[in-house]
Specification:
There is one protein chain. This protein is an alpha+beta fold and 385 residues long. The chain has twelve helices and ten strands. It is elongated, with a radius of gyration of 24 Å.
Amino acid sequence: MLLPEYLAGAPDRLAALYGEVEQDILRNMAERIAAYDFYIPAAQHQHQKLRAIGVLEDDIEAQLAGMSGKSREEIQRLMQEAVKKSLTTDAAVYAAAGMGRVDPLQAAGVKRILRDGMAQTNGLFVNLTRTTANTATKQFEDALDRAWLKVSTGAFDYNSAVRTAVKDLSRQGVGAIQYPSGHIDTIEAAVRRAVVTGVNQTSAKSQLALMDELDVDLVETTAHAGARPDHQEWQGQVFCRKGHHPKYRDFVESTGYGTGAGLCGWNCRHSFYPFLEGASRAYTRDMLEGYAAKNYTYNGQKMTEYEATQQQRYIERQIRRWKREGTAMRAAGRPTDEAAAKVAAWQGRMRDFLSQTGLKRDGAREQVGNAVFTLSPESGIMKPA
């Protein structure tokens, strides 16, 4: 099995690397917007815009392509580590039950599963290059069109139009994927989901291959506080894989294993391990009820850990949003005081939130690439270094 804490931290290294690329792309956009001539006629604007979009798209593809070697290396390391960790844990369960010692990495199909998992996850990162180039250039095109329209109609002066355009891009972040609903996933969100999902699914398939070899039917799912409400229904319970046990429910039907919304699906931090009849359960009823209880208080409101962590994720997004704006405004040659003040304010809110709830800070989720903010002695607020 893989512990929820392990899966939560697995994407941090790649997320930081791609965060730096996102910063570079955002700087590139901001610089081009600041240098763009918004006073030109419509026909010339269309021509100049297409040229700018083409150059930007080439730059984005080149930057992301340059990350391919690092991402492949990290994905290989993560996959091998995760599969070994999960199967070694399972092997200890079998040994304790007197089933003998097995070399889990030599189980039938495990090497193929590991190879396929790496190939599939690497494929997602290759697609990320294409989708990011398309999504980000569409964001850039829309920003140019809106700014040109504001200046050409006299609704805004040049500096105000540039500032608004840069703020809009910073608020959204560099898009990696746009869904039919209009929702856009940033590079950071797409990388985290791809890594957690790929690592967890590959490890799970390897575990099932070993269970097939040893003819093990029962599994127990892991559990953790802060689980999604629909995952709380089955976490920390025992299920049967073959689906006809008199005591335990069907594994796939109950947990949704194999689907995006189920066990080991999109961003899921649950895993499972073999359960042998007669063994003690890892999670008691009191433990599971405690995970779902409203044990946290923030500004007088009682929260479950899931609700509290969702609030923490919101504050983290605001910190990243204003850090992005500070970077982009600086690249556009515009003042960064507002962004720096907002970063400081949201960091203060985070400290207050953590003080009230007792949750731990996750610095990796507040980082935006290698952006560093320092205190300005003149203004007393945080400014990009």
